[in-house]
Every structure is written in C-alpha cells, then in structure tokens.
Amino acid sequence: MKYIAPDASLFMLNRKNFAQRLKPKSIAIFNANDEQLRSGDQNFAFKQNPDLFYLSGIDQEQSILILFPDCPNPLYREVLFLRQTNDHIKVWEGHKYTKEEAKKASGLEQVFWLDEFWGVLQLIIHYAENIYLNTNENDRSVYEVPYRDLRFIQQLKERYPLHQYERSALILRDLRPIKSEIEVQLTKKACEITRDAFVRVLKFTKPGVSEYEIEAEIIHEFIRQRATGHAYNPIIASGSNANILHYNDNNQVCNAGDVILFDFGAEYANYNADMSRSIPVSGRFSLRQKEVYNAVLRVMRAATKLLVAGTIWNNYHDEVGRIMEAELIGLGLLDKQAVAKQNPAAPLYKKYFMHGTSHHLGIDVHDFASRYKAFEVGNILTCEPGIYIPEEGLGIRIENNILITKNGNIDLMADIPVEVEELEDIMNG
Questions:
Q1: In this structure, what DSSP letter does residue 210 have?
Q2: pLDDT tens-digit profile, the chain (429 residues)
Q3: HEC profile for 257-268?
Q4: Helices 420-427 & 181-204, crossing angle to 10 degrees?
Q5: Using CA atoms, how far apart are residues 95 and 101, in angstroms rounded to an integer?
Q6: What CA–CA distance (Å, rounded) separates 188 from 397?
Q7: Cα separation, 191 vs 265, whole angstroms
Q8: In sequence order, what are the residues at sequence separation of 6 or more whose Cβ sits closer than 8 angstroms to the Cβ of residue 213?
C-alpha cells in the first residue's frame, strides 16, 4: 500500500467492541475479498473487504480473521491467517506481509499461514455454539456472481451443519458508522488531499481543456500524496453533462461559458473523502449561474445545520426538500401556487433535485449504516444538494463531509474553497 499504516490501536479497539456484542461461545470468521478478473490473465487492483480491514488493518488478499473470545485455548481467541509468500511470489508480485509485520499492523499476536486455516478451525469450532459469518448487507448493493463470503458460508454449513449461524453484519452496521478519533483523522487526511487536488484543478482549468485532462490533474495530486487513488469513479461533467448524475465518460472539451460539475474524492488508508464542486470554465460565473450556485450553497449550509445527533433520516430529507422548494421558486423554476397544491408523495422539487442530500461516509463511500437509525455522535455524513436544469445546460452540486460531535457538527471540508469569490479569485490569480 502507498499510505502510512494506521496505528494498530484502531483495530484492537474495533475488535474489542465487536467481541462484546457476540453471544456467549461464539466464533466469528472474516474473509478477504476476491481477487477480481479484469481481462485475460489480468486482475483488477485488489480492494480489501471493508469489515476485515476494520477489524484487522490487514490490506492483503487471501487473508482470514478468526475471533473466538470464549475459546477454551487462549491461543486461538484472535487468529489471523495470511498467504505465505515464496520466491516465485516475491519475484512476480513483490512483498507480502511477514508474520511480524502483520502483528504490528493489526495488534494480533497469533498469525498463521493460510494453509493452516482448516486445521486450526477444526481444533476449536466444536467448542463454539454460534458461528458469525459475514456478507455484504449494504442495501445499495446488487450482485449476481457469488463472492467469497457466500461461497465460504456454503462450505462451512456443509462441514458443520448443526451449529447456529449468525450475521456479523447486524453488529457491524451499528459499530462502523461511529468513527473513532483515528478514523476521523484518516478521513481528514483524505479530505486534505482532495482539497489540494481541487485547488490544483482551479488553477489548471480554462476554455479548451478536456475533462480527461482535469481528471489527470486530480489523480496526479492524489498519488503524489500517497492516496491509493480515487474513492470512486470521478465525475468531471462540463456543460450539459452535469445533468447526468453518474457521468463518468470525462471525454468532452470544456467550453467557454459553461460550468463544470466535479464529484471526486481521495481514498487514504481505505478511508474516503467525497466532494462536489461546480466551477466556471472561463473563470467567472454568469449572473444566472451565480444565482443557481448560491441557491445550492444556501441549501447546503441550511442542511448542514440539521446534521446533528438525534436527527431522523427521512425527516431530514423532507426538511431539506422544503428548503430546496423555496430556492427553486426564487429561481423561477417552480411556481409557488403549484407547489402549494402538489402531491406530497411526489414533490415538484424532485424535477430539479432528484437525489438524496446525505449518506454515511467511511471505509465505504456509501458507508454501511442503517437508514432507519437516528444520526449519532461520531457519524460522518456527506451533505450534497444540487440543482439540475437540462433546459439551461446547467447542473450545480456542492458537497462537503460533516462530522457529528456532541457539541454540534464539524465540516471536514471547511477549508476547501466554495464561495463564488474564492473560486473566481483562484481561477484568475
């Protein structure tokens, strides 16, 4: 990995919190993600299973973690299994964790090679009553090919059919949204790298540059600062492209007079930033562009004030919708009388603002959390209202990352330029 490894105390605390939620006499097992085929004999860059990383800090393929707090043999209460390297792997793939390096990264004392896994498991699993297994329960996820966790569940149930099986995800859905201080600092680092990339782009952008050239400037800054890369596919959407919410082509020329909508963020130590900004290609907003931009900015600031502990997800989005309605009426995009008569189940503002305002942020960009649980101290959420006007070839979105504390909230992107005057000054400096 490129990043500086987080302190192992983070993962030790995470394991402790997880173990406290297990039923008595329970064993929990976590697998690394699959290595995914890209084409021919080439794999995609490996991306670790977020739950395994959350509990171990191990960022390597073919790894397994066992947690068995009540194991009668203390040696096997926390055990990590690693792919054993050899001269062939060393030549073709490079360095892999040694046992000592893995102990330092994870805080785990017991590290074995992967080929010992089934033998060790056989020694201890019969002393457990419950087996906690993991799947991806993010409610946005869709899959067709059985991934490693699903295949492992089938293997285990065939070998040990009489145990009681439980879902680790129910515990992790409560734990992962509440960020520790180390996690907050890692997210801040990702935000700082994102800020520097954005300032670089502000100085680079001018009429005639292509969206892909801007994308190249971003990844240059990310990698230069030890980020793994993009937290997600970056959106560099100039002109009418900004009305395509998940625009990823990034292949058009940026024309004078247009606005570019950016949505990008750095990934650092598996923690993510998620930022949106909109800037004028020519370095100055037109009057209309500035009106729409400042309306979105007002909505973002009003929405940010609502991101406090105890806020209910649906109530929050309904309130932001009412704020957006007023701005759209002010822009002449909605009629006040029509809004008064609208069907509450199909509010008119969704014609111009059709997505949610916030999502949890963490190891996953859309982090694992319950949409039915009130926001809590330690949550990090995006705040990303937008106004999209296809008939004007204009789309504006502004997004910052917000940490909820016991004394309100902290904008982790407060130092990233966002005011019209700031953006224009940097672009014309």
A1: B
A2: 899 999 999 999 999 999 999 999 999 999 999 999 899 989 999 999 999 999 999 999 999 999 999 999 999 999 999 998 776 777 677 788 999 999 999 999 999 999 999 999 999 999 999 999 999 999 888 888 899 999 999 999 999 999 999 999 999 999 999 999 999 999 999 999 999 999 999 999 999 999 999 999 999 999 999 999 999 999 999 999 999 999 999 999 999 999 999 999 999 999 999 999 999 999 999 999 999 999 999 999 999 999 999 999 999 999 999 999 999 999 999 999 999 999 999 999 999 999 999 999 999 999 999 999 999 999 999 999 999 999 999 999 999 999 999 999 999 999 999 999 999 999 998
A3: CCEEEEEECEEE
A4: 50
A5: 11
A6: 21
A7: 7
A8: 204
Query: What is the C-alpha to C-alpha distance for residues 191 and 231, in angstroms, rounded to an integer?
Result: 11
Query: Which ranges of 37-129 does DSSP label H, i.e. alpha helix?
Result: 50-56, 87-92, 99-106, 117-124
Residue 256 CA to chain centroid, in angstroms?
A: 33
The CA–CA distances, whole Å, from 42 to 31, 36, 39, 99 equal 22, 9, 5, 28
> Whose CA is closest to 342, among 361, 360, 328?
328
CA dihedral 31, 36, 42, 48 (to 10 degrees): -50
In single-letter form, the type of residue at position 356 comes to: G
Read off φ and ψ for residue 134, nearest 5 degrees.
Answer: -115, 145
**What separation, in Å, do the N-terminal and C-terminal C-alpha atoms of the chain show?**
36
Strand partners of residue 113: 82
If phi > 0 it is left, if psi is from -120 to 50 it is alpha, else beta; for residue 222 that is alpha
Residues 361, 401 contacting (CB under 8 angstroms): yes
CA separation for the pair 239, 252 (Å, rounded): 10
pTM of the predicted model, to two decimals?
A: 0.96
Q: How far is CA 394 from CA 66, 351, 369, in A?
A: 52, 14, 33
How far apart, in whole angstroms, are the C-alpha atoms of residue 157 and residue 131? 10
Cβ atoms of 358 and 168 within 8 Å: the answer is no
Cα separation of 339 and 298, whole Å?
Answer: 20
DSSP string covering 387-425: EEEGGGTEEEE-BEEEEEETTEEEETTTTS--SHHHHHH
